[in-house]
Design goal:
The structure holds two protein chains of two kinds. By secondary structure, chain A is α+β, with helices and mostly antiparallel strands. Chain A contains three helices and seven strands. In chain A, a hairpin with a 2-residue loop joins strand 5 and strand 6. Chain B has a three-stranded antiparallel β-sheet. In chain B, a hairpin with a 2-residue loop joins strand 2 and strand 3. The longest helix of chain B has 14 residues. The chains are: A alpha+beta, B alpha+beta. Chains A and B meet through strand 1, helix 1, helix 2, strand 7 and helix 3 of A and helix 2, helix 5 and helix 6 of B.
Chain lengths: ~160, ~110
Amino acid sequence: MNTLEAQPVVHNTLVIERNYPVPPERVFAAFADSAKKRRWFVEGENNQIEGYALDFRVGGREHYALGFNEGHPLAGHRLSSENVYRNIVPNRRIIFTSTMALAEKIFSVSLGTVELVPAEKGTDLILTFQSAFLEGADGPEMREAGWRKLLDKLAAEVSL
Amino acid sequence: MNKRTFDIDRIFHALGDPTRRAMVEKLSQGPVSVSRLAEPFGITLAAVVQHLQVLEECGLVQTEKLGRVRTCSIDPAGLSAAAQWLADRRSLWERRLDRLGDLLAEPDDGR
């Protein structure tokens, strides 16, 4: 366990592109509508949601807190996240800043950009998520990075 | 169904060794005897037995003695535990956008 106060910050940029066979208006609504957003954004098989709120407007906040089931690497800890919406162009673009904290200690600060591009078949969604990982991010995150090489090799085997 | 718990550290430790991975690949094609399994690896039977022990202890492989022949096969439960762990590690956002796709695939509620 490393208990140094200030470790080097690890930066990471994640870009994911998806196509959804529906118009941008519907994709945008899944971001803007609190009930819809909660369903795909925070509900997961392994989590208990301890709180969710969305105020979807520029300057508005979104917050959630999660507990994890037995067997999950984060079982027994509380994960919370807060987003602030910085730029919204209806049906086209959403930019937000985001923090994640484990047991109230922030371990990542991020800038998220969602672009919705009308496509021949529905909507292309481009997510760019730029993060600074701080101390305490070395649980699941670093472990994931460490395993990545191995996982690449394993992917073929486990997909049998 | 049996309630079994898997030590994911041990599973990935076991799979971290190229010989053991090759053994798992071989066994994925079907059960074989220990001596048949040893053939392509050019290592002693004793070494193969040791590798097998590691794979068996973490739940990836099961062995069964039939008469004088010990047969080994993949233990699907161990592999599923590993697959589940891998699925859980997929980027948070990948999983979120999968779920968004599921939601958008439902009939529009008019909003």
